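@channel sequence for tomorrow's demo:
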Amino acid sequence: MSPRTNESATADAEEATPEASTERATSEASAEGATPEASTVGVTEAPDDERVAAVQRLSASQRRWRAAQLAACTAALAVAFTAGAVVLGAVRDGGTTSTVASAPSGVSPQLLARGDLDASITSLQAHLKAQPKDFGGWATLGLAYVEQARTKGDPSRYPQAEQALDRSLELRPGNESALAGRAALAAARHDFTGALKYADKVLKENPYSERALSSRIDALVELGRYDEASKAAGVADSRRPGVPVFTRYAYVRELRGDVKTARRVLQQALSTASTRGDVAYVATTLGQLAWNQGEYDTALTYYARALGADDTYLPALEGRARAQAAQGDRAAAIRGMEQIVDRCPLPQPLVELGELYEARGKEGDAQKARDQYSLVNAWVSLARANGVNADLDTALAAADHGDPKAALKAARAEWARRHTVHTADALAWALHVNGRDAEALPYAREATATGYRNASFLYHRGMIERATGHEKEARASLKSALDLNPGFSSLGARAARKALEAAK
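structure tokens (generated this afternoon):
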């Protein structure tokens, strides 16, 4: 679930779910499994002017060597979006006319949970070249692409996933696996209404579908329908208990402020995790939960466990760097974040790295920070070109490090689609940076109304209360933010302390 990034999805490809928050280099993702003859099939390409504008923004940097590096990253993102559908065109035009039944032994979703997603996708591609009428194989490939987009931060996989799932539905209309895949894909693109529709279609035919049960919880949470999400989590737990359902149940409880239950359920999920991907995901989620409560040593312990299962798992690497920053080890945090954004320049780590540079304040750091914020714009453009709704990313990044008017426009658009604690917080802060604090205050209060323990939300609320003359409430909110998680943000925590000092 966004913005936990990530957050709401298990690493098991059978449970490919949203968020794409946080993962690997997009240029690597496109290259893997691609064949020369298929590399231009099914192209979904970002408009040239968007890519050129992004590169021009970066090329203007006075530090030419850094600008060149960033431009290369942007180019890699653009190249990823022109890599094509890998096997889709070649298989469709393979010349065979025989109808082949789905072959679970060759393309079962469980194959994708055995550790190496890229190798599994390669196996699927080879299978589908030989058996192009296997509707189950196409559905599994679609799910695998959604999962690959999530774990590698590569939105170019979404058009590929869409084509694979469409092919499955052409071969076998209404088949459960493809509809569940469409639910996962819609959620990954932040079309949560669509995700709910597809999940309900599957559950009408098969009330015990783990993927559909999980996607339904995700969609209801991301639509802000928390009471319904809680009921859906209970139903899913009664029908298909396991890691995918446990992690979602825990997040629903966390959103209600019930951290104790969330931790207990996640620990149960970790104890039952049987794949490296599940261990890495659940341990990272426990690390994030601990970090949210300011328990940095505990968070680092869980991140170490996640990296013991998969030392390349970017959410764990990102979480570790965040915890190191909170503990004051800025040098280690910067090194870690630099490695992450070099592999996967997604908005949240880009912003966090930029803020770490700003907080350090060495010569050249201001320009380095601006470079990171510029890349956020590039990612947003390219994500939108591949069907991803990026308004929440835009609102959060632009409010602090971009165009305040653009932040407000994006936040209003996202609020019109869904009312969640995250969209309420984003809209409140966007209104604040535009000097519209009286309008912002109700949204800031709504963001904290469920009991969700988030220091950033409390900080935003406190600053808005301060701007509207609610001094007592502002002090309480800012103190709560720092008491909960004193290292919640390199710049935000510093601003909160400064505001509290000024209020004395």
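heads up for whoever presents: The mean pLDDT is 80.
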